[in-house]
Amino acid sequence: MQTQEVYLGQDGIYTNSVGVKQLLDFYEDCKKFTDCVIHIKLDNLLWLDGNLCALLGALIFRLTQDNNLKFGIDAAEVTKKCSVLFHNDFLKIEQNVNLYKESSSIPFKGFYPKQKDEFTDYLDNELLSHKAMPKFSTEIKEKLIDDLIEIYGNIDKHAETEFPFFVCGQHFPKQEIIRFTICDLGVGFYKKIKHIKPDIIANSGDAILWAIDGNSTKPDAPGGKGLKNLHEYLSENKGGIQIFSGDANWCSKEMAQNIAMKPQGISQLKKMFTGSSISLEFNKKVLLS
Question: Residue 61 burial (CB < 10 Å; 0-12/13-18/19+)?
Fold first, then answer.
């Protein structure tokens, strides 16, 4: 197969709209090609937030399915420039495994929509039991799992996709935060919510705000509180939440930090993301105090 070179990004790819734009640009550059091998270049990249491997993995999965692409990357380049791709199992290695395992990484993994038990096990044993997390009480831990499982349920019932969804997390010791991202390749927030609320939902931003307020597209079930509950819990503990779907990015004020807040926390993406990416930020300084 023919090989094409595509740069992953430039400088730093962080958990914000600029970082997501870089990953979507990478996706668009790769989408120009079919039936070939994409060699991912890291020359211009200085940093990648490990949790964003969930989004990167989702985009690469879609490209393999839609464009019959295969992907390669230079292992020495990864070690030098972006070793997090080894640390969190985004790139599988067979030798020197212990050299690359770092406690700051929460593993990259994909789950199909019907793998509820496997996803629950990951939340319990990989995310919420990570050594950087506090020793949650049984009640809080079960509540967090319930709220995250509701997000899974929305993917299973409403995303209209049989593609897997992807997860990954990262502990950032200097900032004393843990970020966790879950990304699916479904229809996104807008389509379903617009269908049931055509008078008040004009765009993807409206749909995200409607969902974060605790509303539900499920007429026969109370539901709809997972995102709202997570937002409230993280906000109360000086953490945050960020959502990308369609052409919109919503960011809670806590996660925006020093970035100027847009009206209602919504900013527009120049590229369309067909799916949803939800990033949670746990503030270790508050949770462990």
Answer: middle
